[in-house]
Design a protein that fits this description.
This protein is an alpha+beta fold. It has a single domain, classed as Alpha-D-Glucose-1,6-Bisphosphate, Chain A, domain 4 (2-Layer Sandwich). It contains 1 helix and 6 strands. It has a 6-stranded antiparallel sheet, with helices on one face. A hairpin with a 4-residue loop joins strand 3 and strand 4.
């Protein structure tokens, strides 16, 4: 995630440190390695959230795979910030994949 200074995972909760923004805590709701899915929910954030749940799925296709990332968030005004963060993450993921494939 862009701007993340640190990340810890205790098997249930993922804690992210964002310099200048504070801490975010996300509960991993479910993970399925076979289906290549993960659902997580943010329960602690410097931004007031009434509800947040995201689902990530990696789907095989003819070109390799496609990443599907969906988020439900309330209040809806927060969506613009969540979207920007997710898009930044996708750019970083693509960069990591590119670097690992060119070795």
């Amino acid at each position: 995630m862009p701007g993340v200074e640190g990340c810890e995972y205790d098997g249930e909760v993922r804690s992210l440190a964002l310099p200048g923004a504070g801490a975010i805590k996300e509960r991993i709701v479910s993970r399925d390695a076979v289906a290549r899915t993960m659902v997580y929910s943010c329960f602690e954030s410097p931004t007031p959230l009434d509800f947040h749940e995201a689902r990530v799925e990696v789907v095989a296709d003819d070109n390799g795979c496609t990443l599907h990332w969906q988020t439900k968030v309330q209040p809806v005004e927060i969506e613009v910030f969540i979207r920007a963060s997710m898009e930044g993450c996708l750019v970083q993921i693509a960069q990591v994949i590119k670097e690992s494939s060119t070795g």
